[in-house]
Amino acid sequence: MNRTICKALSLLLAAALLLATAACGGTPASSAPQPQEPSSAAPESTEPESVEPESTEPESTESESTEESEPAAAQTPAEAGVLVVYFSATGTTKDIAEKIAAYTGADLYEIKAAQEYTAADLNWNDRNSRTTLEQNDKAARPEIASAPVSLAGYSTVYVGYPIWWGEEPRILDTFVEANSFDGLTVIPFCTSSSSGLGRSGQNLAENAGSGTWLEGKRFGAGAPSSEIEGWIDSLQ
Length: 236
Prior knowledge:
Order of helices and strands: HHHEHEHEHEHEEH
CATH topology of the domain at 88-234: Rossmann fold
Largest sheet: 6 strands, parallel
CATH architecture of the domain at 88-234: 3-Layer(aba) Sandwich
Helix content: 25-40%
Shape: globular
CATH superfamily of the domain at 88-234: Flavodoxin domain
Number of strands: 6
Strand content: 5-15%
Radius of gyration: 50 Å
């Protein structure tokens, strides 16, 4: 083999050896894995707001809907401008008056006698007791110690008293004659062990000479609130 051929073979062997070395030493740059760019959109599982069902909307939305559907709070049956006037020698009528005021939200006014009534004064078995003498005298007008009350601004006035000898105490006549009931609805109520209203409501209306007087109601001592409230509701 001449020298030219040997040299050519040597060059070919060298080139083959070089290629084999490059193949074992690494991957071509074009085929090497490239670094991954972070995705701008996370998977759905990491975006709960986009896949939450409608039932998990904010509580405020649900509460607002509930508030709109709830009915308005129940109101007391009486309007503003109600007054409860009462006279009570033993506390029985006072108890009824306070229950009426509590249910209607009314103001209270107590008629107090300038000369308080004692147990002896209230003795109906004594023909000479103070109350016996007063009730037998239709012109009697016992003096009132309470400061005068203005009825201006009221639309309804309840007037309460015990029944004495079948009628209103004369101190109630003192009160109604001293006040004007023009434009007012007046509702009498009384307390007694057995006697009814009798002519007491008519007597008061006649002596007052003004106002629209409704038929009244008699209550026994310690009448329950349910009885009183039922009566008031029946007036509406």
